[in-house]
Please model this.
Amino acid sequence: MNQQAFSDWLRKLESLSPSQWQQLHSHLERTQSRATDRLLEAHPPAYCPHCHSSTLRPWGSSHGLPRYRCQRCGRTSNPLTGTPLAHLRKRHRWLEFTQALIDGQALRHAAAQCRIDKNTALLWRHRFLQAPATHQALHEQGIVEADETFFLKSLKGQRHLPRPARRRGGVGRTRGTGQDHVPVLVVRDRSGATADFILEKLDATHVSKVLKPLIDPEAVLCTDGAAVYATEPQPSLWGARVRNTTATATATARNVI
Ligand SMILES: [Zn+2]
Model:
């Protein structure tokens, strides 16, 4: 429908009777509900949420969602089982609520717009923000890139701080990577499979502990020039061959120059 036709259609809405408004409202809610369910149907779970087996088979439907049965453990699940979104009601309002959050609306405004209680909105926001954290890759292959970043350690809510309180984020007491920072390792392969890890410490032992079960032995691990990768660049430690992309880039630049 082009913009002119859409504007004409909107103007005609003014002539609807109260009962026709009610019918239109019900129809739109049903359409929104189907949109959420269609999204869930289009992304069936790859693994059983109970035993992580990949032997899932369709097993009818329940509460409007497709159901699957695991051939290994015999338990049933739907696309939301084991996720932060399990057991949440009013699926037909999820997309509208999500868009309101993306638009940066205050929680009570989003709740009013979606016609849900403010406590429901608070619960939904917590659950929706938890959901991306569960999307961690379990296996990465081919060319895999790893990089570290550092976040200031937050002690929000603690009564006795081991350091002076910071205001509005602030800065650490030491420059660079000190005890005020939490190291986070992000790993991604060329298919887009991504995983991130909060490390206790950025050293070979802790990095190896998270990389080895994740990366395919045939993969090529590309890193920057961080000293942690230079300590033991053998596949036995990282689970893959290591390639220092900073060194490669420098070498390439030298060749070009
Ligand atoms: Zn199972």
